[in-house]
Write a structure and sequence with these properties.
The complex is a heterodimer of chains A (270) and B (264). Chain A is an all-alpha fold. Chain A has helices at residues 2-26, 32-36, 50-81, 86-100, 103-117, 124-148, 152-160, 165-194, 197-200, 220-230, 234-267. Chain A has one domain (2-37, 45-267): MetI-like fold (Orthogonal Bundle). Chain A has 11 helices and no strands. The two termini of chain A are 39 Å apart. Chain B is α/β, with parallel strands linked by helices. Chain B has one domain (13-259): Rossmann fold (3-Layer(aba) Sandwich). In chain B, helix 7 (188-201) links the parallel strand 7 and strand 8. Chain B is globular. The chains are: A mainly alpha (270), B alpha/beta (264). The interface between A and B is medium-sized, with 22 and 29 residues.
């Protein structure tokens, strides 16, 4: 009992200390001015994070636009269409393996393929495509789970009413699984925001305002990394960290709320 | 009780020497019977004797399962159900199905009923309104839900949900309605309402019902088919005839034993 309680208390303490420390250190520097001015660049680390916020949103948007159709398509295929054979098992195994690969490996791959071979250079596009590779396993597995959790009776009911398989998928399964799928997307948005390593080698680190898919950029996480490693502006790094933590807390809250709704819907009480 | 129309001796559905296999397992052997139009045919028998499997042959719901093979002849209005040229979607429009557990979609009452017609191309709001109203009236649910069509179907009681599922089938305007133990998840009062509804619907529709409940079969059906398992667990048809005859004067000893509750 002592062991179990000890584990719980230590976990909560660590959580509170980390979040508390970043917020206490970061919040004083977190002013409207900080959010709205671009970073100065250079060793000083002066300035704000306006271009960094724009880069982050840009990158996440491009990532999601590519990720969702591809991931959802794969999820629907695996959940509803894939025959139970060796190829399917191989795909599943591949997806699971990819989910466990460290993100810097994806970074190396993205650097080799998108940055170098395809000449996208360090850019939003390279970063987004790399993130898509990194996040596909999460997207596929989470939405496949959501689709599979739709009761078999709904499939039967739709087919027995003379719906084609595609009508069953698009009109019954996907709408019913929608909250679960949205959860998957938000989970991926969160991870895209958190990701640092694979973007270090694909997005570059330009602090300038991105003007197109092929401009470089830096996300909030990358900015924290640069500020901490290459400047003396530790307070600015902490303020950026506070922005990140607040964003993640918001995203997690939305995710929890959605999965609660999803479960309620499956039980038929909403 | 018997409303079965003697003038029509040609069956709506006719099965001749039908065999059904799931992989190597034979689930049904040599089933031959004629299901009359606009009447209720009950399929009775002990668990695992292939009643539901037989029912699911009639709208090809067994197709979903891998390794299914069907032998013999199974016809709807004289056309083979398992012919290669048969459009399964079209077949299932003509042969609707109500399941054991009420299974409304997690959508509004209106959208549940409108689901079938929408998939089959009805888009106009006016037509859909009409179909929804008519189907709910037919299934005797209209009075209870007319002011809450936009609410979730899952908020209805079990009996209401099952009548909603019947309405959802009626909205597609089928000719045959298959019911797979439609009352087994319902309380006695909800069961009686569904049985009343079935009697009303039998004026216009051919109904085939699988039931475990002997009283229900006796109360509601015009024809009764008694299925049993053979030693290799394949289901066979033991006796088929008018419900009155099956229940008062069964020809086969096994039917009598089952109906009088000696086994099963």
């Amino acid at each position: 009992m002592v062991y179990v309680w000890g584990g719980g208390v230590i976990t909560v303490l660590i959580l509170l200390v980390v979040i508390g420390y970043v917020l206490v250190q970061g919040l004083p520097g977190l002013t409207l001015d900080f959010l709205l001015t671009p970073p100065q660049g250079g060793l000083s680390g002066e300035g704000g994070i306006s271009t960094v916020i724009v880069s982050t949103i840009y990158l996440v948007a491009v990532t999601i636009i590519i990720l969702v159709p591809v991931g959802l398509g794969a999820a629907v295929y695996l959940a509803e269409y894939a025959p139970n054979n060796r190829l399917t098992r191989l795909i599943r195994y591949g997806v699971e393996t990819l989910a466990g690969v460290p993100s810097i490996i994806f970074g190396l791959f993205g650097f080799a393929l998108f940055v170098t071979v395809l000449h996208f250079n360090f850019s939003i596009l390279s970063g987004a495509l790399t993130l898509v590779c990194l996040l596909l396993p999460t997207m596929i597995r989470t939405s496949e789970e959501a689709i599979k959790s739709v009761p078999y009776a709904h499939r039967e009911a739709a087919l027995a009413l003379g719906a084609t398989r595609w009508q069953m998928v698009s009109r019954v399964l996907l709408p019913t699984a929608l909250p679960g799928i949205v959860t998957a997307v938000i989970l991926c948005i969160g991870r895209a925001i958190e990701e640092t390593a694979c973007l270090y080698v694909t997005l570059g680190g330009s602090a300038a305002m991105p003007s197109s898919l092929l401009s470089g950029g830096r996300t909030l996480s990358l900015h924290v990394f640069y500020l901490a490693m290459e400047t003396r502006a530790f307070d600015k790094a902490m303020a950026t960290g506070a922005v990140l933590i607040i964003t993640i807390i918001i995203i997690n809250t939305i995710t929890n709320w959605l999965s609660y709704r999803f479960q309620k819907r499956m039980k038929g009480t909403s | 009780m018997t409303i079965y129309n003697q003038a029509c001796d040609c069956g709506k559905i006719s099965a001749r020497q039908v065999d059904l296999y799931y992989g190597n397992f034979q689930a049904l052997r040599n089933i031959t019977l004629e299901i009359p139009q606009c009447a209720i045919t009950a399929i009775i028998g002990p668990s695992g004797c292939g009643k539901s499997s037989f029912l699911r042959l009639l709208n090809r719901m067994n197709d979903i399962i891998n390794g299914v093979r069907v032998g013999g002849v199974l016809q709807l209005d004289g056309v083979s159900i398992y012919d290669k040229t048969i459009d399964v979607v079209d077949l299932r429009k003509r042969v609707g199905m109500v399941f054991q557990k009420p299974n409304p979609f997690p959508m509004s009452i209106y959208d549940n009923i409108a689901f079938g017609p929408r998939q089959h191309g009805t888009r106009s709001r006016h037509n859909l309104d009409e179909i929804v109203t008519r189907s709910l009236q037919q299934s005797a649910l209209w009075d209870e839900v007319e002011d809450k069509l936009g609410q979730s179907a899952l908020a209805l009681s079990g009996g209401q949900q099952q009548r909603l599922c019947i309405a959802r089938v009626l909205a597609v305007e089928p000719e045959v309605i298959l019911m797979d133990e439609p009352c087994s998840a319902l309380d006695p009062i909800a069961t009686l309402r569904i049985e009343d509804l079935m009697r009303t619907l039998a004026r216009d529709y051919t109904i085939v019902i699988v039931t475990h409940n002997m009283q229900q079969a006796a109360r509601v059906s015009d024809m009764a088919a008694f299925f049993m398992m053979e030693e290799d667990r394949a289901g066979t048809l033991v006796e088929y005839g008018k419900t009155s005859q099956i229940f008062t004067n069964p020809k086969d000893k096994r039917t009598e034993d089952y109906i009088t509750g000696r086994f099963g």
